[in-house]
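Lay summary. Proteins are chains of building blocks that fold into shapes, and those shapes determine what they do. In this project we predict the shape from the chain. Here is one chain we studied, written as its sequence of building blocks.
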Amino acid sequence: MKNFKYILFALVIIILSCESDDDNLSTEELLIQGSPWIFDRYELSYIINDSGLNLSQSEIESITNAKNAGARISFKSDFTGWGQSPTGTYSSFEWLITNNGKLDFNPGGASSEFVTFGITGDELFFEGEDQIPDPNQPLIKLFHYGKFFYK
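And here is the predicted shape, written in a compact code that computers can read:
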């Protein structure tokens, strides 16, 4: 019976130490470890300009979710990565996390893009602007801002 208690105690210690290792991962390690991240959902924060389209919050979220379904993004340890659009088109990028905690795609390049993001062990989100064109007049667009969640 004493041996059983020691074995049980040892197992608890091992399990707790494994869990704490995951808690100590850096943001970069979490981005890499979770890759590839697959688009899960969009949550609208606010409408920038509705351009007279008068879409509801649920309509904007539904359209944006359908438009991004199947999108994937992956981060590599050499600070490169790739994104795959819902249509299957791949694009590559370089990345880094800035001192102010933003994600910079194409650091040092002429087209650096700084993105506010957040990450937990199993969920990644980006905040950003998106647009929905008027189906009858594609030059007229509703602009909105929200969070794009990936799992």
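What the prediction tells us: Residues 97 and 104 are 6 Å apart (CA to CA).
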